């Protein structure tokens, strides 16, 4: 039985939990050209919009072309920065190069382990529920026995009262 894909995630112990702003700052330090490229793209789009609103379509068109170039440069910065970080980690001995099939096999093993852990947790939850139901049933059984004893006592008292009333 396979579990839903929403359970496919990184192990929370792999990464230190960082606030969103700390993560952004860390990524900016790792690859400073990406935020520069993003800011450049935003500036060129803003200028192009102002030029277009002012009616200068030729200049606006040039700024939109500049936007495409700055987006391409940003994409290139993302790719080169990722390659650089991966290569740096490899050279420092933190990572060994792996083939795509090895990476896929590792991911499949991790997913299988996660699914197994989730299944075990589910079985434990079910077992706990069964134990609680059994305890509840035992409690109700004892209560029923107590009520039966009380009703028998009441019946005996009723019979005695009937005998007394007949006499």
What does this 3D model show about the protein?
It is a single chain. By secondary structure, this protein is mainly α. It folds into two domains: 14-97, no CATH class; 99-166. The protein is built from four helices and no strands. It is elongated and about 120 Å long. One of its GO terms (biological process) is mitochondrial respirasome assembly. Residues 145-167 are annotated as: Disordered. The chain crosses the membrane at residues 33-52, 64-84.
Topology:
Blueprint (H helix, E strand, L loop, with lengths): L19 H11 L2 H22 L2 H35 L8 H67 L1
Helix pairs in contact: 2-3
Record keyword descriptors for this entry.
single chain; 167 residues; mainly alpha; 0% strand; elongated; RCF1; Respiratory supercomplex factor 1, mitochondrial; transmembrane helix
Task: Look at the helices and sheets and give the structural class.
Answer: mainly alpha
Per the principal axes of the C-alpha atoms, what is the gross shape?
elongated
The value of Rg in angstroms is 36 Å
Percent of residues in helices comes to: over 70%
Whole-number mean pLDDT: 84
Pick out the low-confidence regions. 1-11
Beta-strand content estimate: under 5%
The sequence of SSEs as H and E is HHHH
| Major β-sheet profile | none
Count of folded domains: 2
Termini separation: 75 Å
Counting DSSP E segments of at least 2 residues, the number of strands comes to 0
Question: DSSP helix count?
Answer: 4
Concise synopsis of the structure shown:
Residues 1-11 have low confidence and may be disordered. The chain is mainly alpha-helical and 167 residues long. Helix content is 81%, strand content 0%.
């Amino acid at each position: 039985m396979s579990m839903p894909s929403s359970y496919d995630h990184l192990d929370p112990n792999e990464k230190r939990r960082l606030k969103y702003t700390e993560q952004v700052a860390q990524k900016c330090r790792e690859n400073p050209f990406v935020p520069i490229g993003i800011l450049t793209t935003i500036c060129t789009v803003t200028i192009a919009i102002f030029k277009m609103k002012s009616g200068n379509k030729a200049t606006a068109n040039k700024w939109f072309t500049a936007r495409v170039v700055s987006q391409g440069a940003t994409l290139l910065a993302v790719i080169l920065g990722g390659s650089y970080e991966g290569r740096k980690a490899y050279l420092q001995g933190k990572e060994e190069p792996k083939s795509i099939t090895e990476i896929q096999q590792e991911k499949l093993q991790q997913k299988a382990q996660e699914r197994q852990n989730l299944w075990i947790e589910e079985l434990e939850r079910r077992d706990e529920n069964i134990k609680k139901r059994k305890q509840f049933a035992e409690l109700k059984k004892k209560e029923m026995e107590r009520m039966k004893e009380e009703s028998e006592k009441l019946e005996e008292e009723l019979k005695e009262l009937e005998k007394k009333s007949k006499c």
